[in-house]
Write a structure and sequence with these properties.
- The protein is mainly β.
- It starts with a helix and ends with a helix.
- The chain contains 3 helices and 18 strands.
- Strands 1-2-3-6-7-8-9-12-13-14-15-16-17-18 form a 14-stranded antiparallel barrel. Strands 4-5 form a two-stranded antiparallel ribbon. Strands 10-11 form a two-stranded antiparallel sheet.
Length: 323
Amino acid sequence: MRIFKTIIIILILAPTMVYGIGDKAGTTGLKFLTVGAGARQSVVGAVPGDINSLFYNPAAVYFIENPAFGLSHNKWITDIVQQTAAGFYPTKYGNFGLGIQYLSVGEIKGYDVDTDGEPIRIPNFNPYDATISLNYSKKIINVPMGINLKIFREKIEEVKAEGVALDIGVYKNITDSFSGALSVINIGPKVKYIKKKESLPMEIKIGGRYALFDKSLNLYLNLNKPLDNKIETGFSAEYFLKKILCLRAGYLIGNDYRKGLSSGLGININDFDIDYAFIPYKNLGNNHRVSLTVKFGKEEDEEEERLKQIENRIDKKLKQLDS
């Protein structure tokens, strides 16, 4: 039996440790599907109108008003690196999005054993995980809804697993200050890996956001129930300073390996958003995430809004003069 198969088992099971240990830990595979994207989201969860929220709740991107594009880099635990890209385009028939995630662990030296049981070198290999998410969102019965069709592949040397999954979600602004969200991600059939079929790591996510001081301060509560683990609860907040600088902090409980504080900041420069997050993983090291989002057509919309405000003021003055 090849030595690299031992490495395969480690790579499959190691992510389950990161998400805490519950009674059902290790009963699902393909855990790379649960590694979220976006620096802002890693601290506060799904945010309405932010393109990286596509990977958390497919309905959250419904609130994006113009075409947008985002890139994210995640220096995860040990040598694992995740790169993501996402695009969004609204139309009168609904909104369309595309998300791409690629996770790699670098090059691994290949070893085998000969007939005498002695180790021998075989070609090196580069394990990777890749996912493509096709997103569609639309308001139905006055409720923004979204769906992702995900196509994924995990490959380790000669062994690979491929499949499809669905994410579904709703995100509703209940009042001007309060929003509620619900999503179920990684819904799909079992996938054969080597000789065994593995269940997908399905998760149920419930979130709430409360905005204060004209949305300068946002408070978040997120509940996450993995199929194979206990409930995780996250409390977080973000504060905007003149809509240019944003400070973020969060606290996660119910997760044995990532519980505790996380932090981050964001900078908005015209049509560009730059976000950074710092997340400690105890003995597994620290996680650094950086995201860049580009928004198109924002200046035109702001100019139209200013003109509408001027027109409204003129109308009010004319009505006052007529009276």
